[in-house]
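Researcher: Please predict.
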Amino acid sequence: MNTKYSLIFFNCLIYLSFLVGFILKENSAGGGEVDFAHIYNNIILFKNYEFSEINWLKYESSSLPIYYLIIKYLGIYNLKYLEIFNLIISFSVIFIFYNILVLLKKKNKLNVENYILFSISSLVLLSPYFRTSTFWILEENIGYLFMLLSSYFALKSQSKINFISSIFFACLAFYSRQSYAFVILIVFFYYYNFNNIFAFRNFILIILFSIFLIPSLYFFYQWNGLIPPYAALDRTIKFQLVNLPIIFSICLFYLIPFIILEDKIRILNFIKIKKIIIVISLFCLFFLFYESIRTSDVYYDIKLGGGIIYKLTFHLNIIIQDFNHQKILFILISWLGFLSILYYASKSLNLTIFFLIFLIIFSSANIIFQEYFDPMIFILILIFYKMTDTKCNFTHLFLILCGYKSTLLISNIIYYYKIVN
């Protein structure tokens, strides 16, 4: 079958599955129904009170409230209209993502057809977390939209309007979720002229970011911290060492399909150059985590976070039953995750910023959920690395990612509907 028609067929299946999931209110991430109760509480809170009168003790979210402010401004409170609103946001994410890939194709003179790039951008619709956020009116997807809009305007041209728009949407991404601070840093470093620190554009850059971010100080003052009071009750901000291997393992899970297609010579050169770091990091991980991972540290409820690899290792006992052997296996997997992060971070300053910010933020979280990284890693690896890779076979990339993400989606559906429930 012709490649173009094969991809059209796969795309039809992807969009059909998404629309069926929308109609059936699929909950493949597992937390949609519970999270919806918090989201709807916030929507009603903003509906019933003027902004200055809101009691933040009743605000059931860990994020800044841009999503609810937009809903209040538009006056959308009917559930059906809210579902359509979220559906429009999600399809807008795909549209902007596709246009970014096309811009990068032209910029880097890549030999790839636009219909292949459209197919790759559509793979976001296979993410269980992106789907659940869409179907259950959750607040995550609007952050992806603002992040991608910021990237789009930064890549489009160096005009003044694009410069301002990129900064503005980077700040809106932060207002949708504080962990998106990496978007602000990426845009800042993209525009900042380090060769002439007194350049006029540097001055304007700092002024614009300052103006757009000033409102966040109001929220942090009202909350007496970086997160709202409700979230602060069970999300104390303190460094938790045991989170690092969990983060490494989740990152590895999403980097595997890219590693499979990675040029083997590049990987061998990386191993050759970093061989000392590779060996030392293995010993460090065992030294830091073997004794610190205790049965009391393992999330007590199978419905809680940790990621797929974590659950397979410690909860489902599919691979190994002995706890000490489970720890050894998990540390080895986490080590591979650390090396994968190191490899891709070395390919792009933007990916370095992303991984560093996420490590800093989520090493302080009480519970690590896989949804924090999906489809974020997929989107950023494509934008900041694969779309600069002239050796990449994008048809093979689509097929591998499609198979990988479809397997994840089906596994999630089976896991939450059969095992957990």
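Model: The chain has 19 helices and no strands.
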